[in-house]
């Protein structure tokens, strides 16, 4: 056995659920090779920062963090620092130049070769003359996007005893003009449905009862003659699975069949994330979202008709290039009309290489203008959310207990409608389902009391 085996790896993940799932995949791949997972960078021999590229702010945070990690490498030069994920793919070799103490950059399709690349760096360092002041291996960049890579046959390391992320699709075939994802994760590729179903069966056998199916446009899934709503129904019928969620669907692929499956299958939660982005047709067209406000609203109405008590969430971008004050107001009006239970709100962030960078300079709003809009949007959303959630106080909901709360006697769980509830109970009930009376709300989350 090689000497490098049984070293400690620390993976720090930023960004979306898909990236969290990728972090678990990297851990799984390395554990399989004898690595131990460490919970702290200070104790690790290999530090992987699994990054996000969706907005500039996300990247700045990561660059700052990577800079901090340099401190560890100064003290222990043999530590390997890797940057993985979407920002690694986007910046590639540039990142190695900007941060010369980084040993490895690896994009989202490179993880299968992670053990081998770490080994190369390790062996390179060992073979340096011992008096060399910088005893380190080669700096490696693994940046090929691979349409054939969906990580079949590899085992994800699942840390939650309760729920599991299940990536069913990687990449994206859309080209929303603001979005970097298609460039850093490549075109859409779907896993075979039989592989997905086998994996969910294993998840259930291991005692996890909740699964979340993941993909960039998860509901455009289609593979070996199985489309998304068919897959979803099969997943929901697997013995032992009590809750099924999925994210992120594209509004255009929200079909009546999908909504019917959601309504019919008891395991599928009454929750739908429907990214709107803007409430104005001209802006939507410039974003290349391929739907209009009216068609979006039709989906919302149909979903609410078919699935009683449906909880809806969305993503909104403000200050997209060329967005006028009136067009922004249209977004606010639409929020007031739809009344989303939750909204993830963003200021437009320019991403090099995306089509939106080609709009004329005069279309771009200043950060100050964007911030004013964002603040206003958040205010409108919070007031709606507060209203909705106050109306839910007094209900008794089924809660799946997920983890300890901030206070020692408290646990945190979620309702089927994806609302977070904190209540007093022993942490021994983590992983189990309980009826909980919602006694109050902070606006976004709930306080509760065990009702059974
Ligand atoms: N595949 C998902 C979106 C992935 S990105 C979907 O279609 O819904 C998650 C969210 O980040 C997007 O919905 C969008 O609201 C936001 N986002 C993406 N690119 C952005 C950018 N350049 N600036 C600001 N927000 C962005
Ligand atoms: Fe991005 Fe649009 Fe795809 S938001 S991930 S290009 S659906």
Shape: globular
Radius of gyration over all CA atoms, rounded:
23 Å
- Write out the strand line-up for the largest beta sheet, numbering strands in chain order: 2-1-3-4-5-6
Low-confidence stretches: none
pLDDT averaged over residues: 95
How does the major sheet shape up? 6 strands, parallel
List the helices and strands and how they pair.
Elements lengths: L7 E6 L3 H16 L3 E2 L8 E6 L4 H20 L4 E6 H6 L1 H6 L5 E3 L7 H13 L13 E3 L20 E5 L1 E2 L10 H5 L3 E2 L2 H13 L4 E5 L7 E2 L2 E2 H9 L6 E5 L8 H9 L6 E3 L7 H7 L5 H14 L4 E8 L6 H14 L3 E6 L19 H26 L3 E9 L5 E6 L4 E5 L8 E9 L4 E5 L2
Parallel strand pairs: 1-2, 1-3, 3-4, 4-5, 5-6, 7-10, 10-13, 14-15, 15-16, 19-21
Antiparallel strand pairs: 8-9, 11-12, 17-18, 17-20, 18-19, 20-21
């Amino acid at each position: 056995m090689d000497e490098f085996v049984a070293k400690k790896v620390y993976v720090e993940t930023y960004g979306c659920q898909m990236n969290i799932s990728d972090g678990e995949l990297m851990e799984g791949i390395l554990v399989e090779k004898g690595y131990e997972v460490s919970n702290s960078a200070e104790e690790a021999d290999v530090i992987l920062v699994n990054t996000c590229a969706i907005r500039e702010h996300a990247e700045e945070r990561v660059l700052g963090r990577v800079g901090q990690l340099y401190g560890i490498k100064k003290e222990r030069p043999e530590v390997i620092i890797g940057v993985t994920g979407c920002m690694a793919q986007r910046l590639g070799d540039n990142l190695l130049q900007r941060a010369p103490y980084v040993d490895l950059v690896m994009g989202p399709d490179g993880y299968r070769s992670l053990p081998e690349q770490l080994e190369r760096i390790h062996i390179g360092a060992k073979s340096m003359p011992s008096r060399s002041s910088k005893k380190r291996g080669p700096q490696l960049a693994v940046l090929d996007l691979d349409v054939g890579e969906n990580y079949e046959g590899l085992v994800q390391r699942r840390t939650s005893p309760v729920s599991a992320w299940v990536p069913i699709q990687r990449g994206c075939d859309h080209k929303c003009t603001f979005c970097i994802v298609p460039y850093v994760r490549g075109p859409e590729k779907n896993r075979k449905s039989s592989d997905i179903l086998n994996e969910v069966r294993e998840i259930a056998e291991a005692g996890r009862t909740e699964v979340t199916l993941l993909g960039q446009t998860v509901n455009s899934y289609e593979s070996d003659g199985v489309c998304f709503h068919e897959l979803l129904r099969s997943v929901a019928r697997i013995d032992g699975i009590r809750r099924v969620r999925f994210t992120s669907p594209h509004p255009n692929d929200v079909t009546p069949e999908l909504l019917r499956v959601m309504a019919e299958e008891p395991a599928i939660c009454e929750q739908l994330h429907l990214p709107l982005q803007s409430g104005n047709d001209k802006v939507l067209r410039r974003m290349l979202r391929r739907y209009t406000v009216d068609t979006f609203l039709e989906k919302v109405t149909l979903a609410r008709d078919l699935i009683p008590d449906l909880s809806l969430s969305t993503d909104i971008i403000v200050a997209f290039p060329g967005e006028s004050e009136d067009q922004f107001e249209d977004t606010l009006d639409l929020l007031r009309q739809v009344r989303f239970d939750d909204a993830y709100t963003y200021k437009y962030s320019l991403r090099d290489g995306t089509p939106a960078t080609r709009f004329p300079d005069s279309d771009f709003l200043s950060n100050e203008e964007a911030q004013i809009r964002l603040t206003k949007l958040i205010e409108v959303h919070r007031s709606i959310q507060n209203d909705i959630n106050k109306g839910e106080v007094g209900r008794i909901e089924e809660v799946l207990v997920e983890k300890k709360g901030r206070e020692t006697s408290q646990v945190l769980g979620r309702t089927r409608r994806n609302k977070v509830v904190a209540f007093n109970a022993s942490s021994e009930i983590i992983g189990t389902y309980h009826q909980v009376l919602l006694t109050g709300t902070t606006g976004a989350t709930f306080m509760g009391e065990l009702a059974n």
